[in-house]
Amino acid sequence: xDDYCAEYQDIFPEVRSFESFKYLHLGxxxxxxxxxxxxxxxxxxxxxxxSLHHFLTDSPWDTKLLESRRLSLTxxxxxxxxxxxxxxxxxxxxxxxxxxxVSRQYIGNLGKVENGLVSVNAYGIFGTIVFPLIFKxxxxxxxxxxxxxxxxxxxxxxxxxxxxxxxxxxxxIVLADCLYGESKTFRTILEKCELNYVVAVRSNHQxxxxxxxxxxxxxxxxxxxxxxxxxxxxYIQEIICQGWEDIRYWKITKDxxxxxxxxxxxxxxxxxxxxxxxxxxxxxxxxxxxxxxKQAKNELxxxxxxxxxxxxxxxxxxxxxxxxxxxxxxxxxRDLAQHFSNR
Length: 343
What we know:
The chain is built from 11 helices and 11 strands. It is globular. It starts with a helix and ends with a helix. The chain is of the alpha+beta class. Helix 2 crosses helix 3, helix 2 crosses helix 4 and helix 6 runs parallel beside helix 8.
């Protein structure tokens, strides 16, 4: 941990700020259930949480500089290798209305509309390792402050993809759920950047109604591989749209007799070739985010802040991302070593 944190030391002009940065790393990976500042202070041996609170509120360091350093470290770790990019949003319930950008909106973690805070996030997947990239807060229209510009979640995702490409990240495919799959703006940017993608669409996808001529191929089986290595037989069929050879649609389900909503996907992709045995598992990586990294982020304390100012919340979230990268560091190096030896 000391070696990893030393990569960020010059960002903090105050010695006590750097010490707090390390204390937060230690506290966030500890086994305490809730990563509040008082709990972290206690587990790392501090008399109280005041120095940690000062680090997040008044300490003179730049959050964007910390993000830039973390992304630079991530680039150096990847050594130019490509990875899968996943776009998703994280929503957390928050009481009251004093916290910046909190509003009644759909909270994915709860699966319903609640009072909460939502961010659009990008993650990378290399081998079996997931690592954080960029997050951007979603600002509902009712919460905008002076100088704010309203941006939809797909527009924020487009910004993230553009920033990652400018930084030199090499991702060979983009995965996203139907919020982004149904966004023409999002898909247009992917196509303009000549990026491959597999995105979910709704069962009543507008293009099918417009085209009129839609055919279904026969069902095929494939082995769905989960993050724990277990396999299960799923069913897949292609939805054929005449005149749309560059874009392909697929329907995937766990049970062709019942086709329950939570086990049936509709996918859109620009991947070509014989992909009926692979496209389901390719999109399945996005589910790793839904059922894996969100729990890991919560374990590190993503939603445990007691702050109301977004600039301070942003500092907390960026620190969580730094801790998450530290946890992934050796695993990425291990997978890269195995990757190069297989070559």
